[in-house]
Specification:
Low-confidence stretches: 121-130
CATH architecture of the largest domain: 3-Layer(aba) Sandwich
CATH superfamily of the largest domain: Response regulator
Order of helices and strands: EHEHEHEHEHEEEHEHHEE
Helix content: 40-55%
Largest sheet: 5 strands, parallel
Number of strands: 11
Strand content: 15-25%
Number of helices: 8
Number of domains: 2
């Protein structure tokens, strides 16, 4: 299920958003301190961010700029400030959408779904042009050219995490969190085993070296390899 990071300092609003997102098949993580947003983003690697403009300890526009410098993850700004200059500034620094309070939770969910669809289409077009690999979440398939890769569910999910975040290093713990969110206990060796098997399947098509091990840290997808 897609994970949405909610950065909002009003508990009632945050709970309302979480309830609606959960009812539509999303997972959520909530942070109310602006100074902690980037760290939580790095730890959880969400699929999209709902970012309040007015957060304690750090300004939402500054957070948006920081997140955009790190990732292309969709960002939707939430604010009670309806001035045009604020909306324009938010979009200019990388926000994908802008929602003014008070808002309809159903509208927020619809907009989240919309930006996720747009980001997936853009990503597939960009990366498939680069290496010929297409990772398709709706059909749960990955192919290189016309060849469909024979991947296990965990291999497919692991490839998706790395492939959709080129050059970003994921620790083994982060990868375990993304693959096993049902409470099961696994070890670092489990991730290493999945990586080894995935590499073998990619090596048949000359792409095995794109999964790079970062000593003492974890793994990343290197599109330059």
């Amino acid at each position: 299920m897609p994970l949405i990071l909610i950065a909002e300092d009003e508990p009632k609003i945050a709970q309302l958003l979480m309830d609606y997102l959960h009812s539509h098949g999303f997972e959520t993580v909530w942070v109310e301190d602006g100074a902690k947003v980037v760290a939580i983003f790095e730890e959880k690697n969400p699929d999209a961010v709902l970012l309040d403009l007015m957060l304690p300890n750090r300004d939402g526009l500054e957070i948006c700029r920081d997140l955009r410098n790190r990732s292309e993850t969709p960002i939707l700004m939430l604010t009670a400030r309806a001035d045009e200059i604020d909306r324009v500034t938010g979009l200019e620094i990388g926000a994908d959408d802008y929602i003014c309070k008070p808002f309809s939770p159903r509208e927020v969910v619809a907009r989240v779904k919309s930006v996720l669809r747009r980001s997936q289409v853009a990503l597939k077009t960009e990366v498939s042009t680069e290496v010929g690999l297409v990772w398709d979440e709706p059909t749960r398939s990955a192919r290189i050219g016309q060849h469909v890769l024979d991947l296990t569910p965990n291999e497919f999910n692991l490839l998706g995490v790395l492939f959709q975040n080129p050059e970003r290093v994921f620790s083994r713990n982060q990868l375990m969190d993304r693959l096993y969110n049902d409470g099961r206990i696994v070890t670092d060796r489990t991730i290493d085993s999945h990586i080894k098997n995935l590499r073998k399947k990619l090596e048949e098509h000359g792409l095995g070296e794109k999964i790079v091990a970062i000593y003492g840290v974890g793994y990343k997808w290197d599109p330059t390899k």
